[in-house]
C-alpha cells in the first residue's frame, strides 16, 4: 500500500557551509575541524546528547596505540587531555603491549564534546533526525528535518554523513553494502551496562582456583541455556561502574522494530546475568544494575562504496596510502553475526592483528564517493569490506576520519573546489599542524 504525499513549500531552518548529520565521535570531529578552519557548520543529532556510542551506548574505551606508542592524536588527543584534566578519564598504566589507552566517564565526555563544539562555533541541534536529502543538479543541497514546528530544511554547500548507518548517503543514491559477503549479516551488537553494590573485599578474597571454578560453572550454565550467550565468563574481575562488554545480540540494526526488540533483549540478558551472579558469586549478593546503555552498541550496518575500499589485507599489511588522513591500529575484530558472543579478539592471534609497532593508513578516499561530489561520510559507514570495517569502526579511527573530512571540507570551500580535488599534500600539512600523527606517506602524499 502507498499513500500520496503532496508537494509542499518547506521553510529553511538555517543555511550553513557544512552540514554534519550525526553527532557521534566522527561527527563531532568533522564539525569541530571544519569550523576551526573557517566554515560555518551545523550539526544535527537525533539523541539528546552528542558522543554516539561513547556517551549513549557506554562504549568508553579508546584504542590509540600500535602496542609500542600512541599513533592516534589530533582531536582524539585533545578530547583525551580535556577529560583527564577534569577527572573524567583514566589512563592505562602503559600502552606497551596493548591497543587500549584510556577509559572515560560517559557523562563527563558528553560535556567535553559539547564544549569543543561550542568553542568552535558549531550550531548544534540535538533531538533532530536527518530526514530526506535535498538533491538538485547532481549535488546534495542539504537535508530535511521534522521539528516540533513542522518540517524544515537545512541547506549547505557540503554535507557530511556521520550517521553511522550511512542514512543520508544512501538516500542520496550513493551505493552501499550491508554485512558480510556470504549472507549480509552484520557484526553482533552489545548491551553495555554498569553495576553497583559489589562487595570488593569478598571479590578480592577469592583465590585463583575459586575464580576459575566460578568461570567453569558459568560457562556450563551458558551451554545448558540457563544463561544467554556471552563473550566473557569471568565476573570476578568486575568493579563498580565498570562497563562489561559481554551481552551480545544479533540482528538487523536497519530495521527499527527489530532493533527495538534487540535492545530490550539485551537489557533482559544483563539482568539474567546479575541474578545468577547474586546466587553463585561471593561479593555479588547486593549487586544492582546502575545503568544500561541508552542504545545498543552497534558495530556495523551500511558501508558506502567509496573511491577507496579498506580491506583486511590493507589492515594486516599495515598498508600506507598517498591520501592518508591518519593511522589505524586496531585488529580484525569481528563479533559473531549470529550472536554467540564469540569475537576474533578472543583469539589473540597474530593472524588477525596489525604487526606490533606498525599501523595502517586511513585514506581520505574511503570517505569520498563518485556519485555525489559534495557529500562525504565519516565513521563506521565509510567504504570498507566487512573484515576491514571490523578494524576501522572503533571510535578513535572514526574521529580520524571525521577530522580529515571536516578539514578537507573547509579547504574545499575556501578554494572553491570539490573535496576530491583538494591537494592532498596541503591537506596532510594542515592535519599535521593540527596535531594529527601522519607518517610514512608514499609518493603522491606529503612526506615528513
Task: Describe what you observe in this structure.
The chain is of the alpha/beta class and 448 residues long. It has twelve helices and 18 strands. Strands 1, 2, 6, 7, 8, 9 and 18 form a seven-stranded mixed sheet that branches. Strands 3-5-4 form a three-stranded antiparallel sheet.
Keywords:
three-stranded antiparallel β-sheet, seven-stranded mixed β-sheet, alpha/beta, 31% helix
> Helix proportion of residues, in percent?
25-40%
Which H/E pattern describes the elements? EHEHEHEEHEEEEHEEEHHEHEEHEEEHHH
Number of separate helices:
12
How many strand segments?
18
Q: What is the distance, rounded to the nearest whole angstrom, between the alpha carbons of the first and last residues?
A: 60 Å
Q: Mean pLDDT, rounded to whole units?
A: 94
3D shape:
globular
Residue runs with pLDDT of under 50 for 5 or more positions = none
Strand content: 15-25%
Largest sheet: 7 strands, mixed
Taking all Cα atoms into account, the compactness measure Rg is 22 Å
Q: Supply the helix-strand structural class.
A: alpha/beta
Q: Topology of this structure?
A:
Blueprint: E1 12-21, H1 25-36, E2 41-44, H2 53-56, E3 61-63, H3 75-86, E4 89-91, E5 100-104, H4 106-120, E6 123-125, E7 130-136, E8 139-147, E9 150-161, H5 167-171, E10 176-178, E11 189-191, E12 193-196, H6 200-204, H7 208-223, E13 247-249, H8 256-280, E14 288-292, E15 302-304, H9 312-316, E16 324-328, E17 360-363, E18 375-377, H10 386-392, H11 395-415, H12 424-433
Parallel strand pairs: 1-2, 1-9, 2-6, 9-18
Antiparallel strand pairs: 3-5, 4-5, 7-8, 8-9, 10-15, 11-13, 12-14, 16-17
Helix pairs in contact: 1-4, 1-11, 3-4
